[in-house]
Amino acid sequence: MTIDPQLDKLFYSLLTKDNLSGYEDPEKFKKWVPKIKAYREKLDSSVPQELKVDLPGPIEKLKADQFNSMKYLYDEKLLSPHEFEITDCAGTSIVENIASGKWTSVEVFKAFAKRAVLAHQLTNCAVEFFIDEGLARAKELDDYQIQNGKLIGPLHGLPISLKEHISLKGRIGHSGIVSLLDNIPDKDAVTATILSKLGAVFYVRTNEPHALLPLDSGSNITGFTKCPFNLLLSSGGSSSAAFSGCHGLRPSSRRISARGLVGEGGGQESVVGVLGPLSRTIKDIDLFMKSYINDGKPWLLDPWSLPIPWRDVPKPDLSKLKIAVMRDDGVCRVTPPIRRGLNEVIKKLKSAGVEIVEFVPKNGRLAYDVAVKLSNCDGNRALREAFSASGEPLPRLTKWYLNLGDGAREYTVSENRKLNAIRDNLRQEYSDFLIENGIDFFLGPAYNNVAPKEEEVYNESYTLIYNLLDFPSLVFQTGLFQDPKVDVWNEEDMKYEYRSGMEELENRGYDPSQFIGAPIALQLSGRRYCDEEVVAASEVIVNFLGVDLLKRQKD
Amino acid sequence: MTIDPQLDKLFYSLLTKDNLSGYEDPEKFKKWVPKIKAYREKLDSSVPQELKVDLPGPIEKLKADQFNSMKYLYDEKLLSPHEFEITDCAGTSIVENIASGKWTSVEVFKAFAKRAVLAHQLTNCAVEFFIDEGLARAKELDDYQIQNGKLIGPLHGLPISLKEHISLKGRIGHSGIVSLLDNIPDKDAVTATILSKLGAVFYVRTNEPHALLPLDSGSNITGFTKCPFNLLLSSGGSSSAAFSGCHGLRPSSRRISARGLVGEGGGQESVVGVLGPLSRTIKDIDLFMKSYINDGKPWLLDPWSLPIPWRDVPKPDLSKLKIAVMRDDGVCRVTPPIRRGLNEVIKKLKSAGVEIVEFVPKNGRLAYDVAVKLSNCDGNRALREAFSASGEPLPRLTKWYLNLGDGAREYTVSENRKLNAIRDNLRQEYSDFLIENGIDFFLGPAYNNVAPKEEEVYNESYTLIYNLLDFPSLVFQTGLFQDPKVDVWNEEDMKYEYRSGMEELENRGYDPSQFIGAPIALQLSGRRYCDEEVVAASEVIVNFLGVDLLKRQKD
After folding, report:
1. DSSP string of B483-509?
2. A417 contacts in B (CB within 8 Å)?
3. Quick check: A427 and B303 CB within 8 A?
4. Which residues of A touch B410 (CB under 8 A)?
5. Chain-chain contact of B421 with A266 (C-beta, under 8 angstroms)
6. β-pair partners for A474
7. I want to staple B28 with a disulfide (CB 3.0 to 4.6 A). Which of A96, A548, B391, B522 is the partner?
8. How many CB pairs under 8 A join A and B?
9. What would the pLDDT profile of B530-540 be if each residue is shown by its tens digit?
10. Quick check: A390 pLDDT over 90?
11. Mean pLDDT throughout B241-258?
């Protein structure tokens, strides 16, 4: 990691809210180093040797070269045509092909396992493989199908990777926190239970940022995950649809159970975390949500989950949609590739008859401030306990996170409630704006830049707003990629006056020559609990834009 | 108010958590006395003289006589047969009769207005009348019906009384708090807006306990409300179904909008308050919920409200129900009339084939402790600000409330979250208990006693548990009434060892000769968001028990 010394100075000057004492303890940490080593060795040894390929060079060189591993995968034909056919098939169709007998669950599983191992070799995306168990489960499913003449559920035979903090019984669950390497949950998270019951096959758990805090991905346990389109860049976190080239849904809270997540102390209700699916097709996101909710009925296992069925909504007619575009949220200016992405998508949507309204949020900065204050309103006490238990060194961005809001100052209950009340007023304001103006959705950036460099991503305002509002939001790929020749700051840009140190860090960190080929994503958001409408409209928009993440890679 | 001096001593010995300084200020309060006086005068003058009756004696004598005003109403025929016919008709049928042209909205309104004035004369239940406005609205509705040949909505012409803290534009909203006599909301609460749109007619606002805290009803502003069946007793609060002889639903949170309530600072999410309907028939509760949710769509006006439609569920077959009976919650022993009510209802339900399971909650005391700690976890700061703004004298039970939990100790955010996490575990425990044992509902007391005496009601554990769990709960009348000859402590009871000072206060305060004729209510509760099932089963049970609150009064 090399960061412009001037920007690094600015970065450290912004860390004023938590003096970071009481976290790190090198002496204490020594005890944990062997546990980290053992964890990494287990990860390495769990990767079947026969599935590995020779990389085209040392990983550090590939990083420096901004290596595009997606292109490499296809150019070098690292999978057989049959394996490509399977792994570049929408989940919806995979289940159909298993149902029709065209493919077996085992056959599907083997192709995905191979591709996952390749992905891991190139991007360091996995923290745990259990391919043997996955294979055994796939065999079970094939047997079930033969014996019963039907599928076990709507996700029968579908290999699904899980974020690491979704507890699995008997397996270490750490959320990137070293001291949790001793944590072995005694039961599966509700969401794992449901997916498994629906027929999904688990075999790999994916990396997450330290305690799921920063917007990049990685921790002291297994290091960082890289963007498959440019290995110099980060895959992003805690989920990574905007940076890694897939679509992803942030559902409204309480539609997907969050019961049984690792490291989740519980009881935080101000800005509620959610789980949601990532996929290369939007129809798979719909399949996931519909199956999970309507067949999985999470409320029977978790009273926190809402018994709101997943509704079948008609695909909207683009010429009847009214969309409010937020080009700048008042917190951080977007970089040239994101600006281009917005401009091109808006132009196309207008050509399809979409009514576009410009939206300049009058309380964007307030929303960001409230959200980060609420996120840290326990004065980082829970994090301090978790980190200091091992004394692990704090990654750069963990320090950043600990300094958001009022950092180490623990709020009283009254202070917390006052911020909650402001949050509720913001929800009302954004909701009323949509309803009173007959606007269907917000369209905007998912982040002010494309995939960031490792440990150089500071601003989460563009996604945090929807966590604060608890509005459903779908990050979708535009099919566009950063182009160092086109996506440069123009003369006007150079005169810009930064509104905050964070904005300066973010904007000045964008050197066009270092983000080559990074995917350009945007997000579509709607009213609370209108997840179905957001998914349906996203599918229509993505299809209209001609984005096909499966087809593109096959060509 | 005369309280056994020994019990009074015990009461004051239990007030150890908040020393009550910083609330009262007689000097400051002087300024507010004229405002209270003006409020009362406005109330008095808003009662049309021609609707008033002569009471059979001074109110203090009626209280001492444990006067039954319900009996008096019918014995003395204080309403005409036509007025009785209208006001003893289910809301569902009133709307039908208006639709068919049998009655006009004005005719219905006049009968209810007269009955409301009588009720107020006898029980002091109203804090504000606006009969002229109600009449004008009823006329408007009649005109609408004539012009359009149809009703304006599913509650067309139905007179509904509102609890005082439901904001009405341009009218003082105080929640029993003197300093809020200056508060004049600039818009209606969402729930008032919806009910009005559905066709309801407002004309009276009803009394509430001081800041909606205690379980009795009244404040320094307009005094206490009495139980219509025994004027010595309290009507109860903040709602009063268990004490005043009607049925009432506590819905799951976020089904009825709580946006725009007076005195609600907002941001408290640990034990969420809810609004729900009170009625003399359960089918009217169903009408209210169904119309409010499915036609009113509160989520369009308030993003806090959940878009969960009110489901039509089949009326359950009693012989297929399995009900867990909680006779004692581990916090407070019930008095003899409640015990009798439980025994008789259980006996009848068993005869109908209901499978009855005894349920002894293993964490009842923990649940109570967590709930009261969460209720006061801001160290009473919000209440201190509200009360001290006028320096008003603290009613006896306000002092009690301020001393619940840890009283004046303000929690940190971490402490709040830890309690929330315990609450979530309790929700899981109760929910799992129902699901894993195939149990449909909990049946139990709604309070450990019948209607209490003014300022002598300390324990809210039997309702608080469902606020904590956020389970829907329906308080229903058993059709039984306290009988001083039957409902006495027995020899076994006399040997009982109290588990807490609060229990001693509650139990020793029950002198059978002072609760004559108080209605005996119970409650049926179900899983979170299974409000529909709770209402449907309650209707079947109440019908099976032969309880008819309209018929009984006509006989």
Report:
1. -TTTS---HHHHTPPPSSHHHHHHHHT
2. 265-268, 378, 382
3. yes
4. 412-414
5. yes
6. A249, A524
7. B391
8. 123
9. 999 999 999 99
10. yes
11. 96
Question: If DSSP states are collapsed to H, E and C, what string results for B376-425?
Answer: CCECCHHHHHHHHCCCCCCCHHHHHHHCCCCCCCECEHHHHHHHHHHHHH
pLDDT score at A263: 81
Q: Which residue has the tokens 């109403």?
A: B73
Q: Check A414 against B418: CB less than 8 A apart.
A: no
Chain A residues with CB-CB distance to B405 below 8 A:
none
CB B114 within 8 A of CB B135: no
Q: Under a CB-based contact definition with an 8 Å cutoff, are residues B251 and B288 in contact?
A: no
Q: Pick from A412, A421, A529: which is nearest to B412 by CB?
A: A412
* Shortest Cα–Cα distance, A428 to chain B (Å): 6
| pLDDT tens string B191-234 | 999 999 999 999 999 999 999 999 999 999 999 999 999 999 99
**C-alpha dihedral (A46, A52, A56, A60), degrees to nearest 10:** 0
Which one of A293, A302, A411, A417 would you mutate to disrupt binding with B, by most B Cβ within 10 Å of its Cβ? A417
- Residues B433-483 have pLDDT tens digits of 999 999 999 999 999 999 999 999 999 999 999 999 999 999 999 999 999
Q: Do B424 and A378 touch (CB under 8 A)?
A: no
What residue type is assigned to position B388 of the chain? S
- Mind listing the pLDDT tens digit for each residue in A424-464? 999 999 999 999 999 999 999 999 999 999 999 999 999 99
Query: What is the pLDDT confidence band of residue A266, given thresholds at 50, 70 and 90?
Result: confident
Query: Closest partner residue to A410 among B300, B382, B414, by Cβ?
Result: B414
User: Strand A322-325 to strand A355-358: parallel, antiparallel, or no bridges (unpaired)?
Assistant: parallel
Give the whole-angstrom CA distance, residue B296 versus residue B287: 12
Q: Are B247 and B282 in contact (CB under 8 A)?
A: yes
Query: Rounded to a whole number, what is the distance in Å from the CA of B541 to chain A's nearest CA?
Result: 25
Sign of the dihedral defined by the CA atoms of residues A340, A341, A346, A349, in that order = positive
- Say which DSSP state B252 is in: P
In what helix (H) or strand (E) does residue B279 lie, and over which residues does it extend?
strand B278-279
Residue B340 has pLDDT above 60, yes or no: yes
Residues contacting residue A475 through CB under 8 Å, at least 6 positions apart: A241, A242, A247, A248, A249, A250, A446, A521, A522, A523
Q: Which residues pair with B323 in a beta bridge?
A: B356, B441
What residues contact residue B461 under an 8 Å CB cut-off, 6+ apart?
B329, B331, B332, B364, B367, B368, B371, B448
Mean pLDDT of chain B: 96
Query: Using CA atoms, how far apart are residues A527 and B304, in angstroms rounded to an integer?
Result: 11
pLDDT tens per residue across span A69-128 = 999 999 999 999 999 999 999 999 999 999 999 999 999 999 999 999 999 999 999 999
- φ, ψ for residue A432, nearest 5 deg: -60, -40
Contact B399, B14 (CB under 8 A): no
Residue in A closest to B383 by C-alpha: A414
Chain A residues in contact with chain B using a Cβ-Cβ cutoff of 8 Å? 259, 265-270, 299-300, 302-304, 306-308, 377-379, 381-382, 410-421, 423-424, 427-428, 431, 435, 469-470, 527-529
Give the residue among A357, A367, A356, A355 at the shortest CA–CA distance from A329.
A367
d(CA B419, CA B378): 13
pLDDT of residue B382: 95
Beta-bridged to residue B227, according to DSSP, are B230
For B255, the closest chain A residue by CA position comes to: A306
| Predicted pLDDT of residue B263 | 81
ipTM (interface predicted TM):
0.95
**3-class DSSP state of B217:** coil
Peptide bond into B238 cis (omega under 30): yes
Confidence of residue B309 (pLDDT cuts 50, 70, 90): very high
Q: What is the pLDDT of residue B2?
A: 77
